[in-house]
Design the sequence.
């Protein structure tokens, strides 16, 4: 397909038209709702920047480069930069059919940031610190399944198979379904929670029965419990997912089994949790341990 010439008039009507084209394209391609919102938001912010800076040719790659540099200098992290890059590249190449050179504008290099964790005792303290049974059930389910916050919010009662001890995740990340194996103890606890709260359709209702809980509401009980026990580390719903994976590996759980439960596309994504395992290295003898007795007593005088 021939490339179209760059568009040079960033008027509001044109922006709305292209915005709609972009949205329609992703809807037809069946992109996840979260991806659709993120890409459209990044496009909108780019146009707002163009308008503030009176850019007359927003649909050329050089302007996108200037915007990316602006965001980097403003302190945007790698994940944000990668999302912006992906959104603009897709818009140019697949929606507007405009030139996009990887040589002129390479993708941001990935950062390797290990997630922050808390130990099993702190997980137990967080759960105990919750004032309401519903909040305890939220934290227990997150930690017992390793599911993402959005997946838990949209978990329906019909997705829980008590007989097979499985929970079905419908349209998880990448619009993919999967099953998570869960212990019978979790099923028993959720039965107890159900009898007390009688939720409708979704396991955890929002303010209105029959409606799903929002992700922001999911974070609130964790913040309150963290504050109550005086935990300094950052803790979010995703922290409990990281804890689920790491504590499982420390207990000897098979990595392929974990990959399936977590919904990772590649095994190497699951393998990164090996770096967080503490118990795997508790029986290692460090060389300094043999040297310390040689001088330690004398230095104490």
Sequence:
């Amino acid at each position: 397909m021939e490339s179209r010439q760059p568009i040079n008039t960033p008027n509001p009507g044109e922006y709305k038209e292209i915005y709609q084209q972009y949205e329609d394209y992703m809807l037809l391609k069946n992109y996840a709702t979260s991806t659709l919102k993120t890409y459209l938001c990044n496009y909108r912010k780019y146009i707002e920047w163009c308008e503030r800076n009176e850019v007359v040719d927003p649909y050329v790659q050089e302007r996108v480069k200037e915007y990316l540099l602006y965001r980097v200098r403003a302190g945007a992290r790698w994940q944000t930069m990668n999302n912006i890059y992906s959104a603009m590249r897709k818009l140019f190449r697949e929606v507007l059919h405009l030139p996009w050179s990887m040589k002129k504008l390479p993708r941001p290099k990935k950062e390797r940031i290990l997630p922050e964790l808390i130990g099993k005792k702190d997980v137990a303290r967080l759960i105990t610190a919750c004032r309401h049974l519903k909040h305890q059930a939220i934290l227990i389910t997150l930690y017992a399944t390793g599911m993402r916050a959005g997946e838990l919010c949209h978990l329906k009662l019909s997705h829980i198979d008590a007989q097979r001890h499985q929970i079905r995740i419908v349209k998880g990340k990448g619009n993919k379904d999967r099953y998570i194996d869960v212990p019978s103890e979790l099923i028993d606890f959720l039965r107890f929670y159900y009898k007390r709260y009688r939720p409708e359709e979704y396991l955890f209702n929002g303010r209105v029965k029959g409606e799903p809980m929002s992700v922001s509401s999911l974070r609130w009980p964790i913040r309150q419990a963290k504050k109550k026990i005086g935990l300094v580390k950052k803790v979010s719903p995703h922290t409990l997912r990281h804890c689920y994976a790491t504590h499982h590996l420390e207990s000897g759980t098979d990595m392929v089994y974990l990959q399936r439960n977590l919904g990772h596309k590649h095994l190497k994504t699951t393998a990164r949790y090996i770096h967080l395992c503490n118990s795997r290295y508790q029986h290692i003898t460090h060389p300094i341990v043999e040297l310390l007795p040689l001088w330690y007593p004398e230095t104490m005088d």
